Amino acid sequence: MVMTKLAGDLRDEGDELYALMTNLRAEDWQRKTPFKDWTPDYVVQHLFMGDWMNTISITDPDRFDDVTARRKASREAGQTTMGLEMIDEDVGHGPKLLDAWQKQLHALCDIFAASDAKRRMKWVGPDMSVRSAATARMMETWAHGQDIYDLLRKTRMPKDRIRNIAALGVNTYGWTFQNRSMEAPQPAPHVRLTAPSGEIWTWNEPDETNLVEGSATEFCHVVTQGRHIGEVNLRVVGENATKWMAIAQCFAGNANDPPAVGQRGW
Predict the structure, then answer these.
(1) Closest by CA position to 67, among listed 50, 44, 91, 43
(2) Using an 8 Å Cβ cutoff, are 145 and 47 in contact?
(3) Element (H or E) spanning 202, and its range?
(4) Per-residue pLDDT of the chain (266 residues; tens, 9 = 90+)
(5) What are the structural domains, with CATH classification, of the chain?
(6) pTM beyond 0.85, yes or no
(7) Cα Rg for the chain, rounded, in angstroms?
């Protein structure tokens, strides 16, 4: 039941982004977004490759190991492509790539929905549960989808399925500091967020002196580093909460600094 709901949320998030991107003009595909100058085409390459890698991790772990090793060697040799040449078909670029990505995402969602949430699967770093993998795909799809909304200067209408991302943001409190070789200050802050529907979501022990409070959407923007804490209206109280929100990072990889105020927001 958990995976059916999570896979459904991921599918809906992807379909919403797909619908937005079907309206891109030909010249839009190579415009630079505010995120590392990635173009929409490169964003979809990234999403496609992530979804495909998750798929083969579950369905063909040996191939996953082989592709992971080949991608690592390519990066060490200076290659900057996503590695789409390693898959079984020519997915192309632009609208053709977009259609291929939606098909791949739907296939992955079917696999997630039929899987045990606690099943372990290989990943580039440590192994993780299927539930964690699906949540990470949800976060990636939503966060990189924001790059397209920002490029087009379109306002996104958030949905309550972002609770998956908010929960990931809360659960990576310790990781944020560990990734910077810092000890996470304890206790972790109380988090109290207002969902798009108006529902109140809470995590950790209530503490009005150690608190992050406000819009769930803005919280998700901060923990995915789509916005700087200085350009949202979250209420941050206490030293622990302040330190966290200044460097929050819910995604894997090397430590990244949040964008400067105004760098990605508009």
Answers:
(1) 50
(2) no
(3) strand 200-203
(4) 899 999 999 999 999 999 999 999 999 999 999 999 999 999 999 999 999 999 999 999 999 999 999 998 988 888 777 888 889 899 999 999 999 999 999 999 999 999 999 999 999 888 999 999 999 999 999 999 999 999 999 999 999 999 999 999 999 999 999 999 999 999 999 999 999 999 999 999 999 999 999 999 999 999 999 999 999 999 999 999 999 999 999 999 899 999 999 888 87
(5) 2-156 (1.20.120), 163-247 (3.30.1050)
(6) yes
(7) 18
Partnered with residue 81 across adjacent β-strands are none
Query: Which of 40, 38, 66, 36 is closest to 53 using CA atoms?
Result: 66
DSSP string spanning the chain? Answer: -HHHHHHHHHHHHHHHHHHHHTT--GGGGGSPPTTTT--HHHHHHHHHHHHHHHHHHHH-HHHHHHHHHHHHHHHHTT--S--GGGSSS---SHHHHHHHHHHHHHHHHHHHHTS-TT-EE--SSS-EEHHHHHHHHHHHHHHHHHHHHHHHT------GGGHHHHHHHHHTHHHHHHTTT-PPPSSPPEEEEE-TTS-EEEESS--TTSEEEEEHHHHHHHHTTSS-GGGS--EEESHHHHHHHHH---S-SS--PPPPTTTS--
Residue 10 has which token pair? 């991921």
Report the alpha-carbon distance of residue 228 to residue 121 in Å, rounded. 33
User: How confident is the model at residue 147, as a pLDDT?
Assistant: 95
